[in-house]
Write a structure and sequence with these properties.
By secondary structure, the chain is mainly α. It contains 11 helices and no strands. It has one domain. The longest helix has 32 residues. It starts with a helix and ends with a helix.
């Protein structure tokens, strides 16, 4: 299965699971796709169509490019020597995607939503980076496949539980999902996506689900031993583990209320960063 097709399938699965947990029908995402494909685009006065196109399309491209270093079985599409850094860099590109989308609409609510995501990024990115550095330190490499090989005897989630929990929190934040969905807050009439309609809104939604899927898929080689497991082939174990993490992230959306950015920033800098540094120190001592 090719990477784009895998993202589409898992994205639709995530959307269906989200609809079911939210009290809707599993077929609802397919109806929404059909509706947005035929919906006419609307535009605000003096909007910047080029920047909006760049923002929306790059939101879809970023998770696809991030996913090329994530092993779908034993080997990723691109086994880069700096795969972990590449994954983080592509995720950071989402900041620019949302900023361009919010700015280009020439409307207050999308712009405020974009500012919220930048504030959210400043809060989650440092502990997220420390969690990834902890994995790289434990594996002795920045290559995703090396991280999988280093977990042959013991998965990193067992002796890096704090880094794993921080990664899950940052996964919610990078996909602006669940408690971290303030950039799309209802108090802002939809925030960043408030002025999007038709195919533009569809691409935006697809990019968001793709981010969620890639974040869940990356947790497998980083913390859950990749395709390691009994009986089943490696690619099927990757799929099972990815769906388990994805299900957890979708479930959180319907169980945890939205978090204000100022409070999340405070928790991040006073709690998550110190904890991530302690986890990094422990792993460093074990490795040495």
């Amino acid at each position: 299965m090719s990477l784009p097709l895998a993202l589409v399938v898992l994205g639709l699965a995530a959307a269906s699971l989200n609809a079911v947990l939210g009290g809707g029908r599993a077929s609802a995402p397919f109806g929404e796709v059909a509706r947005l494909l035929v919906q006419q685009r609307r535009r605000t006065l003096l909007h910047d169509a080029l920047l909006m196109r760049i923002g929306v399309i790059s939101l879809v491209a970023a998770p696809v490019l991030a996913g090329v270093v994530v092993p779908l079985g034993d080997v990723p599409v691109a086994d880069l020597a700096v795969g972990i850094v590449w994954f983080n860099a592509m995720e950071v590109c989402v900041w620019g995607s949302l900023w361009l989308t919010g700015w280009s609409a020439n409307s207050v609510y999308p712009l405020v939503g974009a500012y919220r995501f930048v504030a959210q990024g400043l809060a989650y990115e440092l502990p997220h980076m420390f969690a990834l550095i902890t994995v790289a330190l434990g594996a002795g490499s920045l290559r995703m496949s090396d991280a999988v090989q280093a977990q042959q005897g013991l998965w990193f989630v067992i002796w890096m539980p704090i880094a794993f929990l921080i990664y899950l929190v940052s996964a919610l934040a990078m996909a602006f999902w669940g408690p971290m969905s303030q950039p799309l807050g209802s108090d802002l009439a939809g925030g960043v996506r408030a002025e999007l309609s038709g195919p533009d809104r569809l691409l935006f939604q697809a990019g968001r689900y793709a981010l969620l899927v890639v974040a869940a898929a990356a947790a497998v080689p980083l913390f859950l031993g990749g395709g390691g497991g009994p009986v089943l082939p490696s690619w099927l174990w990757v799929l099972v583990k990815t769906m388990a993490v994805l299900g957890l992230l979708v479930w959180v959306r319907h169980r945890v209320p939205a978090v204000r950015m100022d409070r999340f920033t405070q928790v991040s800098w006073l709690v998550l960063i110190p904890l991530s540094l302690v986890q990094l120190l422990v792993v460093g001592i074990v490795v040495v």
